[in-house]
Design goal:
The protein has 243 residues and is of the alpha/beta class. The protein is 27% helix and 33% strand. It folds into two domains: 3-118, 3-Layer(aba) Sandwich (Rossmann fold); 141-237, OB fold (Dihydrolipoamide Acetyltransferase, E2P) (Beta Barrel). The protein is built from seven helices and 15 strands. The radius of gyration is 20 Å and the shape is elongated.
Length: 243
Amino acid sequence: MKIRTIIVDDEPHAIEVIENYLGNFSQMEIAGRCNSAIQAFQLLQQKPVDLMFLDIKMPGLNGTEFLRSLKHPPKVIFTTAYGEYALDGFDLNVVDYLLKPISLERFMQAVDKVYRLNDHKPSAMLTPALPVGDTEAFLYLKVERKTIKININDILWIESLRDYVKVVAHNHVYISKQRISFLEEMLPERRFVRIHRSFIVALSKIEAFYAGVVEVGGHELPIGRNYKQDVQKRLKTEGMLFN
């Protein structure tokens, strides 16, 4: 079944980029291209739409204002060059939040979330992140009634607690209702490694290791049997060796 998609952006080049990326997905059908929220509103009245790629900062009615005005909006992926709007995306329960320039890899992750939602598989809705490799990358996590911004550089490890995760940072521990597999997708792969079904650790924070265990922040964390080979490979890449 096709996923009917519209692209809303006041920049023609931005529309072209998303259109080209969508060409890689046979299940996606472009139902329209709009350069303003008003055009998008009119199109939504005329035809069914399943997914909207929505720019935030546009002349007149911006993306967040437009989305709040819709009684029955389609699924939405925000696209913007401005990271400060990420909290709005979280509050509006959008599927994902893509920062321009958008890489194909990051775009594919967002589309995969849409597929999973359509298949009724459990998936968290949004964890905004700056592009992989950015030294100031961060995540937003819902912690109790607050949305907390966590700098990725501060994370020591992440531990799964069933439907929750515990994010252990230098000076704080955060508990959030989130799946560890979702955070694994969002974290920069070159800086983090999954060592166990319940643990992800920051490579640079590993202080020591031996058979079946790594030490991070003075704590011993287990290496799962199914993860051992990958962990060894990653540590060798970092210049560490198992005895």
